[in-house]
Amino acid sequence: GKELQEKILNQKKFLVGAGAIGCEMLKNWALMGVGCGDEGHIHITDMDRIEKSNLSRQFLFRTRHINHFKSTCAAEAAEDMNPDIKITSYQEKVGQETEHLFGDDFYDKLTGVCTALDNVEARLYVDQKCLFYRLPMLESGTLGTKGNTQVVVPHLTENYGATRDPPEKSIPVCTLKNFPNQIQHTLQWARDYFEGIFKQNAEDVNAYLSSPDFSQTLQGQENTKMDTLNSIKSTLVDERPRSFEDCVVWARNLFEDLFSNQIQQLLHNFPEDQVTSSGTKFWSGSKRCPIPLMFDMNDKCEDAEMRNHMDFIVAASNLRASMYGINGRTDEEYFTNVLKGVIVPDFAPKEGVKIAANEAEAEKEAGGGGALDDADEADEILNNLPEPSELAGFKLNPIDFDKDIDDHMLFVTACSNLRALNYSIPTEDTHRSRAIAGKIIPAIATTTALVTGLVCLELYKIVGTPRKELDVDAFKNGFINLAIPFITLSEPTPPAKTKAVIKGKEWNWTAWDSIDVNKGDLTLGQLMEYFKDEFNLEISMLSQGVSILYSFFANKKKVAERMPMPMSEIITSITKKEFPPNQLFIILEMIANDLDTDEEVEIPYVKFRFR
Fold first, then answer.
1. Cα–Cα distance between 316 and 409 in angstroms, integer?
2. Fewer Cβ atoms within 10 A, N terminus or C terminus of the chain?
3. In terms of Cα–Cα distance, which of 84, 69, 67, 87 is closest to 25?
4. What is the reported pLDDT for 220?
């Protein structure tokens, strides 16, 4: 009734994320009246800008919004739907680096948090904040036709981080490098190669030119030092282009190296008829025997409807030119004329080249070795590089891979398809490759709408009803799959309890509990007396973060010095850092014993309000 709607209007919510779920949630809230009252407010944050591919599933955005911030555009759309909504948008990541903005004073005023995130790390961070400030958290996610919702209620349910999914399986390094058997492998390899050659190499050169202590930085890269120096040498000296024609020649030689020479070297190490020690064929099962490619500028791939050979040269040349600040071009006649004049050296197999045949060998190879042998060679390369002062003002442009930039996708798709042709793997067109390389999970508006609808039903329950106090049975977590179709609602799991006996009474506390001390900035002596009087506990060790503030075995003189000092002063004297002005609480961990039994009592952390 009216009383519940009043509560809805005066909710102060923090919506983290303005993507597919964030847009749908904000639309629901605008229509429900969340944050529309005199005391109500919605805070929404998302650091991402709107990309073209977002428009199919993030329906508050239009073509005119491309390259604008998601949170700002979503907030404006919500205001258009309900002019009474009070909303503030931020373009910040929620994490430790933004605690000056989203700090104690910010969370202290909220009535709840809703996550519309796309990664577990950010969810876990927000979950810890909700635990600390005892705020309800509404969590949801979708994966195509699948969706899930989780409601987290202080003291009633377990928190989000109490149960974890197993980590995602990654592709073994040796499979990516030498033995791909799926288009996903070749696309991942092509994307990694893009990052290495157009971003990492440029960043290494810029670091060399701008860091006065670059040789010191190199010392911390024991296993990758030689790779870094060789990339700087080739990027800055050996293969530095002076014109766009040089970029085309470089791209043609790169084609030969990646898709012909490296494959021939692999077959030199592991011939087609090679047999393992157990008598089975080396090239069998998931190991596909590769075929070197012959460059053909007229080649056309029917499956992908692309000219992989020519597309690779055009994309690689232009990206290389962009990295060096040279103007690029795409007219075919120019490329044809330049490519006819390129002399490609004949392949000669190298002896003594080690190629990892399995994951164990790849890990051993990555572990390095021969560091002493490399040291002299590293010094020689470093000494022969031009001095940064000789190249004053010279800087490369590192290129971040972006799935929505067609030039980037042309290189990655052509590179992936050429490698796929090496290994007789079916090729893919740019559209499908974009989805795989960009790790785009197809979002279906119907799933998003259903998931946010379920979350909003839980929001009504959290806000509460005057008729009865809701227990854990009233709340529901949802799991859905529209393809089957399947939907199940289950009760959330209650939080795990830890037993403690304080003053003879049993206290079963959970992750939601803490010992709250709101007595101002007490001195260490006053805090110890407070625990003796209030809980019959003697503190034997007290810490904050990694700093030990008190321990029974500490230097007696130091302990005596700290006893009359306020807690905040003790911490700043140890950490040499002042507290941010918006910080109200200090988290203290302690080991304490019962004064009567001298038994250690397991207690939660102490939430010490010093301001």
1. 11
2. N
3. 87
4. 63
Q: Write down the pLDDT at residue 174.
A: 76
Catalytic residue among 23, 36, 73, 174: 174
* Catalytic-residue membership of 174: yes
Please tell me what DSSP assigns to residue 290.
Answer: P
| pTM as predicted | 0.69
pLDDT digits (tens, 9 = 90+) for 573-611: 988 888 888 888 999 999 999 888 888 889 999 999 988
Q: State the pLDDT at residue 169.
A: 64
CA 216 remoteness from chain centre: 29
Angle of helix 445-463 relative to helix 2-9, nearest 10 degrees, comes to: 110
CA distances from 253 to 159, 258, 397 (A): 55, 9, 22
Q: Looking at beta carbons, which pairs linking 344-348 to residues 24 or more positions away fall under 8 Å? A: 344/252, 344/253, 344/256, 344/295, 347/256, 347/260, 347/261, 347/264
Q: How far is 91 from 72, CA to CA, in rounded Å?
A: 8
Q: How far is CA 264 from CA 237, 249, 602, in A?
A: 27, 21, 65
Task: Report strand pairing: 606-609 vs 515-517.
Answer: parallel
pLDDT score for 399: 93
Instruction: Tell me the CB-side half-sphere exposure of residue 177, using CA atoms within 13 A.
Output: 16
Return all residues near 373 (Cβ < 8 A) that are at least 6 apart.
Answer: none
Residues of the chain short of pLDDT 50, as ranges, are 369-372
